Amino acid sequence: MKKTDILYHKDFPLSNKYDSKWILDNSMGPNVLWLTEWLCEKVELKPGMKVLDLGCGKAISSIFLAKEFNVKVWAYDLWIDPTENWNRVKEKGVEDKVFPIRGDARNMPFAEKFFDAIICIDSYIYFGTDDLYLNYLQKFVRPGGIIGIVVPGLMKEFEKDIPEHLKDFWGQDCWSWHTVDWWKKLWDRTGLVEIKVADTLSNGCNLYIKWKEAQDTIGKNPWPDDLIALRKDAGEYVGFIRLVANKVMI
Ligand SMILES: C[S@@+](CC[C@H](N)C(=O)[O-])C[C@H]1O[C@@H](n2cnc3c(N)ncnc32)[C@H](O)[C@@H]1O
């Protein structure tokens, strides 16, 4: 993509290799390639590793992982038809590396200790706030393996009610948005993983705004009013959170 492209961003050289229209058509939240690239800065992926892309949506993060890191990816999602994902995989020529499957994150068909890494982009908020979920998930990673997530979240807790400028933005499904400290505590206290990274994306809200502007430009912004709220927020509350941990060696 050229520097003048609507999705070009200097911080995401790997994502810049992919066509904007393809990314805009197939991201189910804010640019899934930016978020995956940010996560992978802290996830050491080596060729041939077995990776679960949990809640992969339209599987473009899975395709990206296969192409950029030469890993094998199980593209697992509940809402999206795996045949649709398989067609996208074949179009991009990675059918020997990406395997789409439909299923629920709470009832997975995999062998215990099968994966070297589990990544989850913009999906963990749909099931991972359950206090008991990490214990379920970690069973599918080998000891020492990696669990890495990126979620939209809060840069600080609301003082009281939903802030006025976020009232139209904040849907019922936002109640699983939390702060980085909240997530860190949720994982840390279990003793099941050793947390390597727990941080926020600098300028995360600006990236969210850039994404919404790109959707506006092509006339495909499902919630145009979000842009007004995000501009007012300017990162006071809204942003992205990253957690990367290794399963303890037991
Ligand atoms: C906002 S979309 C993000 C998809 C993709 N990662 C992306 O960023 O484009 C959330 C995804 O979570 C998946 N999801 C929600 N609940 C799930 C569950 N219980 N098990 C598996 N996937 C789930 C949905 O199928 C959906 O594709």
Q: How is the topology of this model organized?
A:
Blueprint: H1 20-26, H2 32-40, E1 50-54, H3 60-69, E2 72-77, H4 82-91, E3 98-102, E4 115-121, H5 133-138, E5 141-154, H6 180-188, E6 193-200, H7 204-217, H8 225-233, E7 238-247
Parallel strand pairs: 1-2, 1-4, 2-3, 4-5
Antiparallel strand pairs: 5-7, 6-7
Helix pairs in contact: 7-8
Describe the structure.
Residues 51-145 form the Methyltransferase domain. The protein is an alpha/beta fold. The protein has a single domain, classed as 3-Layer(aba) Sandwich (Rossmann fold). The protein has 8 helices and 7 strands, in the order ααβαβαββαβαβααβ. It has helices spanning 20-26, 32-40, 60-69, 82-91, 133-138, 180-188, 204-217, 225-233; strands at residues 50-54, 72-77, 98-102, 115-121, 141-154, 193-200, 238-247. The longest helix is centred in the last third of the chain and has 14 residues, at 204-217. The termini are far apart. S-adenosylmethionine binds at residues 27-29, 32, 55-57, 61, 77-80, 104-106, 121-123, 126-127.
Counting DSSP E segments of at least 2 residues, the number of strands comes to 7
Shape: globular
Give a list of the ligands: S-adenosylmethionine
- The helical percent reads 25-40%
Number of domains in the coordinates? 1
Biggest sheet layout = 7 strands, mixed
Subunit arrangement of the protein: single chain
Gap between N and C termini: 45 Å
Going by helix content, strand content and strand pairing, the class is alpha/beta
Strand order of the largest sheet: 3-2-1-4-5-7-6
CATH topology: Rossmann fold
Compute the number of helices.
8
